[in-house]
Structures are given as C-alpha cells and as structure tokens.
Amino acid sequence: MVRLITHNMLACHARNCTKDNFPLVFSDVELVVREAELNPDFLRRFLPKLDWAALVDTARSLGDTALPDDMPAEWTDAQLQHLHHVLLEMHVEEGNMTCRGCGHVYPIQNGIPNMLLAEHEIAR
Fold it and tell me: Which InterPro entries does its entry note (predicted)?
C-alpha cells in the first residue's frame, strides 16, 4: 500500500532523469483511509526524515489541506493527530505516480507501486 510516509521517500531513477524527480505526482488515484494506532513518539522521531514541502504538496493534491505550509516548531496533539492521518492512514490503492522530470509513470495496483524499470530505463 502506498502511504504518504513511503511516497515521501520515493524518487524516479530512470536513465537520464536527474532533475525534478521528486516528489512523484499522483494521478487517477483511488484513495482509501484506514485507521491506525497513533504513536506520537514515532512521528516525532520521523519528522527530520520528511521533506515537508513535498508532503504538504502531495497531501493537498489528494484533497487534504490541513497541514500547515511550514513544519511547526512545537506540535500540538491535534497537529500530531493530523500528521499521523496524512502519513499513515491515507492509502493510495490504485493510480499512478509520474515523474515531473522525465514523465515516467509508475503504476499502483492493489496498493503496490511498480517501481521496476525496464533494462533500457535503468540509470547507470
């Protein structure tokens, strides 16, 4: 399943794709929300690994506009709950992720992204 926590780490690695390859852009998505147990300590430890601007942009493209433009310096319980929702409860079940740089499309079927490249597409 493609959750935004995973999506925030995915980039295009197709041959000759060296710029504007992150974040991949969702299209034609089927979005499912699945509740998950909140773990504030995990979220706080994971914050430094996030590309905040990419997360906010992606969440908004999927219809969730509650994340602030800038990462809060201090987190309220409500803000952590919403971050949890965006990162761990929003699942893209079907659709595509497209590279802004080269246009390569990575399909998502049954919640699984196909990140495999053909031999001629592999960056060396």
Answer: Trm112, Trm112-like
The C-alpha angle 43, 108, 26, rounded to 5 degrees, equals 65
Tell if the pTM clears 0.90, that is, is over it: yes
Q: Are 14 and 68 within 8 A, CB to CB? A: no
Q: How far is the C-alpha of 116 from the C-alpha of 118, rounded, in Å?
A: 7
Backbone CA torsion sign across 77, 53, 49, 96: positive
Q: Domains in the chain, please, with CATH? A: 2-121 (2.20.25.10)
Q: How far apart are CA 76 and CA 25, in angstroms?
A: 29
Distance CA(43)–CA(101), nearest Å, equals 30
C-alpha 31 chain-centroid distance: 12
